[in-house]
DNA sequence: GCAAAAGTGTTTTCATTACACCCATGA
DNA sequence: TCATGGGTGTAATGAAAACACTTTTGC
């Protein structure tokens, strides 16, 4: 067994570079979108190289800030892609991340020629970026079921219709309005504000804000927060927790489910 | 935005090294154990450095083989720890993995002075290895709930009592025998063999083998396979899938839940 | 016969699902 | 007045949970 202190390069530590990719999701026009930048006759994810004096997380936030402005954005590590032949020439190990931004942040996308693409119709992508996006999408769908990450795709104030649309768009299935609202109510994860939104047409909608919920003591397995399985559903929360008015909260960086 | 092709070192790609750690779990004496090797006046996880010409996954398997022998072992990437000051001297980014081996493989641990430690009473650990183990444990607990990874901790033939013990030991809670067995039966994930096991004392137990289940088409969110939440439970599977005789199967490498 | 582990059903509870109509507003 | 999205309750289903006694073996 190699020494745990790893006293410097043993084999050829030669040419391994560590990079970071970020899959930035948002919702526009009732569809899930990903941010891409033009790259080598195709499109690619925002990325950057990890510097010797910075945390991998820092690199990810920098890559993100380059294209999506700063502000505090929800970001989580996704997976490390370490195949030898990922990049044609050099050896790059890439720590992929994914981020969720709300539709109002995205307008500040400012820099570069970066563009939002609907995940349903992606352009030709560089390297293995297609695979990374697929993976991020799977993770996002899973995570939607047992955490409250979904709110990261909404602005501070939103209607219950907005919220339901987030779920429907990502899961790809329509849900029953009454069941959805009942579950949200039951979970106690939103609070009505004093405002309403008049949307040009139709009855004005109550605006809500997200309420973080107390994390339970030491719970190993997350209980599905919003069920995403069959035909209609929404959350699924253990009766025990509900009685205590709690819900499992997954700390960012919880990795693969 | 940096170019997606990353034409070689841009900043100081100087001294970043990429390593791999593996948290190897097994069950001994009705307790979850982790494999550790002596390192620098403390103990450390099996590890190695990624070579320029090998996949990260390959490095992990090599580190694993060094201490636990070869054989095909269930292994999954856990998380990449990329803090600047993880290691005192050099800059090492570490791609942590975790592996599950059955109690019979572990006797072949052979090499080195590696030892099995109960997770409940770990020794002093090197670097951030304690944190990595904690993280792996959380992941294992979560994953137990909605996949069939638990079987990786058992030999090819096992009793239902063995299986239940795996769950109880990892989740840390006793379960009801009848409910457990009913759920396992319902899921159809085990098949009885022709053999029984006489264990010295008590009635002989039927031996079963694990049966992989058909993965459903394109399911995003996993349905809890074995519930791990409240006081007794076991599985929780969607009625739809159950009727079709299917269960969600998570492909290894599914990352953070 | 006794200690020890294996094996086996029923009832209650509660989350999930399915389902249809009225309300408030702008044009 | 009409088109559009917002808002609301109830009944059926089925998984999860609680619970105790009999069986088979070795000593």
Describe it.
Two copies of one chain form a homodimer. The first copy, chain A, is of the alpha+beta class. The first copy, chain A, has two domains: 16-136, Nucleoside Triphosphate Pyrophosphohydrolase (Alpha-Beta Complex); 144-244, Arc Repressor Mutant, subunit A, CATH 1.10.10. Chain A is 25% helix and 26% strand. In chain A, strands 1, 2, 3, 4, 5, 6 and 7 form a seven-stranded mixed beta sheet that branches. A three-stranded antiparallel beta sheet of chain A has the order 8-10-9. The radius of gyration of chain A is 20 Å and the shape is elongated. Chains A and B meet through strand 1, strand 4, helix 1, strand 5 and strand 6 of A and strand 1, strand 4, helix 1, strand 5 and strand 6 of B. Chain A binds a DNA duplex (27 and 27 nucleotides) through residues 159-161, 176-179, 181-183, 186, 198-206, 227, 230-239, 242.
Derived structural class of chain A: alpha+beta
CATH architecture of the largest domain in chain A: Alpha-Beta Complex
N-to-C SSE series of chain A?
EEEEHEEHEHEHHEEH
Mean pLDDT of chain A: 77
| CATH homologous superfamily grouping of the largest domain in chain A | Nucleoside Triphosphate Pyrophosphohydrolase
Descriptors for this entry?
homodimer, 257 residues, alpha+beta, Nucleoside Triphosphate Pyrophosphohydrolase, Arc Repressor Mutant, subunit A, 2 domains, 7-stranded mixed beta sheet, 3-stranded antiparallel beta sheet, 26% strand, disordered N terminus, DNA-binding
């Amino acid at each position: 067994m190699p020494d745990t202190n790893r006293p410097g390069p043993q084999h050829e530590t030669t040419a391994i570079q560590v990079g970071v990719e970020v899959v930035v999701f948002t919702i526009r026009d009732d569809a899930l979108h990903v941010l891409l930048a033009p790259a080598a006759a195709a499109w690619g994810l925002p990325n950057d190289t990890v510097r010797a004096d910075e945390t991998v997380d820092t690199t990810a936030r920098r890559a993100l800030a380059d294209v999506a402005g700063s502000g505090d954005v929800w970001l989580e590590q996704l997976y490390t892609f370490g195949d030898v032949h990922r990049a044609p020439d050099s050896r790059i190990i890439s720590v992929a991340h994914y981020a969720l931004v709300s539709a109002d942040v995205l307008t500040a996308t400012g820099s570069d020629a970066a563009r939002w693409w609907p995940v349903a119709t992606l352009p030709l992508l560089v390297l293995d970026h297609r695979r990374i996006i697929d993976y991020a999408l799977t993770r996002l769908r899973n995570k939607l079921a047992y955490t409250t990450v979904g709110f990261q795709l909404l602005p501070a104030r939103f209607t219950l219709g907005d919220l339901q649309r987030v779920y429907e768009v990502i899961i790809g299935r329509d849900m029953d309005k009454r069941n959805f609202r009942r579950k949200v109510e039951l979970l106690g994860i939103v609070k009505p504000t004093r405002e309403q939104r008049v949307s040009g047409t139709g009855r004005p909608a109550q605006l809500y804000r997200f309420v973080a919920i107390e994390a339970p003591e030491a719970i190993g397995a997350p209980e599905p927060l919003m069920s995403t399985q069959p035909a209609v559903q929404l959350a699924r929360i253990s009766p025990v927790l509900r009685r205590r008015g709690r819900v499992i909260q997954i700390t960012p960086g919880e990795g693969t489910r």
